[in-house]
Design goal:
The structure holds three protein chains of three kinds. Chain A is mainly alpha-helical. Chain A has five helices and two strands. The longest helix of chain A has 26 residues. Helices cover 75% and strands 0% of the residues of chain B. Chain B is built from twelve helices and no strands. In chain B, helix 7 runs antiparallel to helix 12. Chain C has two domains: 217 residues, Rossmann fold; 73 residues, Alpha-Beta Plaits (2-Layer Sandwich). In chain C, strands 6-7-8-3-9-10 form a six-stranded mixed β-sheet, with helices on both faces. In chain C, strands 2-1-4-5 form a four-stranded antiparallel β-sheet, with helices on one face. The chains are: A mainly alpha, B mainly alpha, C alpha/beta.
Chain lengths: 134, 250, 299
């Protein structure tokens, strides 16, 4: 279910992991209330640093996607929230689809579109990270 | 575990050396009857060449059994010097495993100390056991050799031998192969022989004098000065070896 | 963040006869981290590691492990009591069998983990009665790793642990390292020139070139801070110099100016506005690029 992140992609591993968890919840591979793998076993299985897994779980908890129950482990948050995320992501998908369509009409090819999005995110991620420190 | 390792790394040469020395000692005793027949044929006392004079000297000594043993075995330093030097070679530098051993939580002084001690114990065994063969085997050729003499001579052999053991040991902390320390030690031995021949006066207290137990044989007195000098020289060289290893970068 | 570092190197120097192997190296390894030590061949990685383990004496600077001086013989013994080490050459005692070398090593460590010994002998498929010198390279590495992992040590120091291994074995080794950092709370310090594996399991990284640290920090932090800013101009790119901090490299080629920054893109974009570029591009930088560009910039 959770497959190995790509360390050389330029996207931090913890972000990739977060995306995978959210995607798993989307597709129903992980259900609300279900337990996620423990930090250490998951790190061993994916052969990545345990701190990276811990960070991903912390961020997911911050976003309300999962709950970290002291001593018991990590669990997918109850039904209300995942649905919220699903809705949110669906709305976001529509926005992206529209933007991509418009750019294509203007003759921007797919590779250029990808670079534009990455550049925009890279420029913004510093301020975003600044808010999450601590 | 370090003791066991040092033993495993030196046991073959110690055992082979023991075998060779046992054969040599045994051979000396068992050949007694044959060699005695040759004594009357020795050249006269005023013969010209050095070799002739040495043969005469040896023949003179062999008037009795005790003298024979002295001349045939204790006074032949070559084999013993080589044995002592061989036992002193080896060590950390010749192993590929230096970094592994050095990553163990033991001080370098301990590593080298254990190795030196094991080598010295082997040297002692190689001095005593073949020498003990002399009193044990002599009755076979109808003679007897005093046990006390054997032990005293063994002690002298051992102490003198430590000099070459320690030299080879010290040189082994400078060279990574077994041959150079060995050859350099033997070269030093040859140089020492020449020096002692030239100086004549060192006689009973020089390294080779001590090795043969010369003064004990002739006068019944132990060569205390020589024994002390040899022991001190060995100790100094072993200490230098420890210093050399402690300061080395691997 | 007042926890003392497990490894603390300050301004370390080591000169062999005519070569400065290490030339003012500084780094700190926090407890519990997996620390990747990257550098080219001959950059000074092995020398630094040997200093930490008391095999080489430094010419200057300080190196402390568990807050003990690495160059004092008595503390070095204590350091080695708490450290597991695998050398670059996978140094082992060749004439012993696997079983014998395990017993030999175990004798020096009162906290030897018999349970881990059995687990890894099985997992690594190491035959107890095979002589070490007859082991294949991969088996040798695994044996060396086993001997380091079972010591009950708090720190693991590895010099190029996966060199010469095929991808499957590399993954096995990395997995064992991750399991130990996680499960046993060990600190892992390993040198490598395989950037991919550092990327994968390390949480902190140092890049060393010509005996000095040129990059040091948390890997996630580096990934967020390093950016490549590409500015395209109408005519030839101007020979601009940027006052923004943390610029690693500026390259001019035709109409394009490329700036590699270690402190984000904002300051550079601000300055770049004055130059009126036609297009700007900001791209994240992989560890491999950080490594190659930083090393190139040093020349």
């Amino acid at each position: 279910m959770l497959f190995r992140p790509n360390p050389s992609s330029g996207v931090p591993i913890y972000l990739q992991l977060m995306e995978q968890v959210k995607h798993a919840i989307e597709t129903g591979a992980l259900r609300p209330g279900e337990q996620l793998p423990g930090i250490r076993p998951l790190a061993e299985e994916l052969v990545i640093n345990p701190n990276t897994v811990a960070k991903a779980y912390r961020e997911l908890e911050h976003e309300g996607v999962i709950e970290l129950r002291h001593g018991a482990g990590a669990f997918v948050a109850d039904s209300a929230r995942p649905k919220k995320i699903t809705d949110r992501l669906r709305a976001a998908q529509t926005v992206v689809a529209a933007a991509v369509e418009r750019l294509r009409e203007r003759g921007v090819n797919d590779e250029e579109i990808r670079r534009l999005f990455e550049a925009e995110l890279a420029g913004l991620s510093k301020t975003k990270a600044g808010g999450h420190r601590g | 575990m370090l003791w066991h390792k040092a033993w495993v790394e030196t046991r073959w040469r110690a055992l082979v050396g023991l075998g060779v020395l046992l054969c040599s000692a045994g051979g000396a005793v068992l050949l007694y009857p044959q060699l005695m027949k040759l004594v009357p044929n020795a050249p006269p006392a005023d013969a010209g060449s050095i070799i002739a004079r040495q043969i005469r000297e040896a023949a003179d000594l062999m008037r009795d059994y005790r003298g024979y043993v002295f001349a045939q075995w204790f006074r032949q330093p070559q084999l013993w010097t080589i044995m002592a030097a061989i036992l002193g070679t080896g060590g950390l530098l010749t192993q590929g495993a230096a970094l592994f051993t050095l990553s163990m939580p033991v001080s370098r002084e301990r590593l080298i100390g254990v190795r030196a001690l094991v080598g010295l114990v082997e040297l002692l065994a190689l001095a005593i056991i073949p020498t003990l063969l002399l009193p044990l085997l002599s009755p076979v050729v109808g003679e007897s050799y005093p046990l006390g003499d054997a032990l005293v001579h063994a002690l002298c052999m051992f102490v003198a031998g430590t000099v070459f053991f320690s030299l080879a040991f010290l040189l082994s902390t400078a060279f990574a192969d077994v041959w150079r320390p060995l050859l350099l030690t033997l070269a030093a031995a040859v140089a020492l022989v020449s020096i002692e021949l030239l100086l004549r006066r060192t006689g009973a207290h020089g390294v080779f004098g001590v090795m043969s137990g010369d003064s004990y044989f002739r006068t019944g007195r132990l060569p205390w000065l020589g024994l002390f000098a040899s022991a001190a020289a060995s100790a100094a060289m072993l200490w230098l070896a420890a210093l050399s290893i402690s300061r080395r970068d691997f | 963040m007042a926890e003392p570092s497990v490894i603390d190197v300050a301004n370390l120097r080591k000169a062999w006869a005519d070569v400065e192997a290490v030339n003012g190296l500084t780094l700190q390894v926090p407890a519990g981290s997996i620390f990747g030590f990257l550098g080219r061949n001959g950059a000074g990685k092995t020398t630094t590691i040997k200093v930490l383990l008391g095999m080489v004496r430094p010419s200057g600077g300080t190196a402390r492990v568990f807050e003990l001086p690495a160059d004092a013989p008595a503390s070095s013994v204590e350091i080695r009591r708490r450290t597991g080490f695998v050398s670059e050459e996978k140094d082992l005692i060749d004439y012993m069998t696997v079983g014998e070398i395990v017993r030999f090593t175990a004798a020096f460590y009162p906290r030897w983990r018999r349970d881990l010994e059995e687990k890894y002998l099985r997992a690594f498929e190491l035959p107890s009665d095979r002589k070490v010198k007859l082991l294949s390279r991969g088996m040798r590495t695994k044996l060396a790793l086993l001997l380091a992992l079972c010591r009950g040590a708090e720190l693991l120091v590895l010099d190029e642990p996966t060199s010469g291994l095929d991808p499957a074995m590399t993954e096995e080794v990395l997995q064992a390292l991750v399991a130990h950092a996680a499960g046993e709370g060990m600190t892992v310090f390993f040198s490598s020139h395989q950037i991919a594996e550092v990327d994968q399991i390390a949480d902190r990284v140092a890049i060393i070139e010509r005996g000095r640290t040129v990059v040091c920090g948390a890997l996630d932090d580096l990934r967020e801070r390093y950016r490549r800013v590409q500015l395209v101009f109408d005519g030839d790119a101007p020979a601009a110099s940027f006052r923004a901090p943390g610029i690693v490299r500026v390259r001019r080629r035709g109409r394009v100016l490329t700036v590699l920054s270690s402190s984000g893109a904002d300051a550079i974009l601000d300055e770049a506005r004055a130059l009126a570029p036609v297009a700007t591009d900001v791209v994240p930088v992989t560890l491999k690029e950080i490594f190659l560009e930083t090393i190139a910039a040093e020349e």
